[in-house]
Write a structure and sequence with these properties.
The protein is mainly β. It is built from three helices and twelve strands; from the N terminus they run αββββββαββββββα. The strands form two sheets. It has a six-stranded antiparallel barrel with strand order 1-2-3-6-5-4. 23% of the residues are buried.
């Protein structure tokens, strides 16, 4: 008997094990501001998801409007759409809600992640807002008028008659919420788009405060509802 007959055919290489899917940790979405809708897509309320543990957490209302009765006896199936700063993505979750003892809080249970999307797809909205910018890297520079063209949780597009360069840092002053003090936000120019009358600058936010992030998300939600864009 030959060697091949004695030892058998050479063992084929073992097939590589399929990669295991990345585990989902719902704690990554703690602090997320979200629209809460029923399964038909009707908006119930906007809230911040806090106290996330395993598959449950608390939804703290962000506005006085709530289109669902607290007298319910059975859990209501819902979907959550929000922005995860940790993932820099638009996150979609599904679960159920029940009222808690606190009128400003709903209990969310059986939460599961449906999908993640690039934040630009749903969280960048066209706007027209007057604002002011001050170049941080130019000592003694005065504030210049500018206009917001679009805005997202991560950045903003600005139109200005003044010329600036990629990499410059700008202090942006804008009234994000009428009736409240203007927000002052630090941003950096990532790209320059030349126009016939104004220059346009694509900027990313730097060190955005939680309060300003909340205001931006609320503005985006309001604009999307006005335009009829729902989950």
């Amino acid at each position: 008997m030959g060697l091949f007959g004695l030892f058998g055919k050479r063992a084929s290489k073992a097939a590589p094990s399929p990669a295991e899917p990345e585990p989902t940790f719902l704690e990554d979405y703690a602090g997320m501001q979200a629209e809460v809708t029923d399964l038909e897509g009707r908006l119930l309320f906007t809230a911040k998801l806090l106290g996330v543990e395993e598959d449950h957490g608390n939804l703290h209302l962000l506005s006085g409007e709530c289109a669902v009765s607290r007298e319910m006896e059975e859990p209501l199936p819902v979907r959550l759409r929000g922005y995860s700063a940790r993932k820099s993505k638009a996150a979609y979750l599904e679960g159920t809600i029940l009222p808690s003892a606190d009128e400003g809080i709903w209990r969310a249970e059986k939460l599961t992640l449906l999908k993640l999307e690039n934040e630009r797809a749903f969280f960048r909205m066209d706007v027209t807002m007057d604002a002011g910018l001050t170049p941080v890297d130019r000592p003694g520079a005065e504030e210049e008028p500018c206009r917001l063209v679009n805005i997202s949780v991560g950045g903003v597009r600005i139109a200005s008659s003044s010329q600036h360069q990629v990499g410059e840092r700008l202090l942006l002053s804008v009234d994000l919420t009428p009736g409240k003090a203007p927000s002052t936000i630090l941003c950096q120019i990532l790209r320059v788009i030349g126009q016939e009358q104004d220059y346009e600058y694509g900027c990313r936010f730097i060190e955005l405060s939680d309060a300003d992030e909340d205001r931006i998300v609320q503005i985006i939600f309001a604009l999307q509802r006005r335009q009829g864009r729902h989950l």
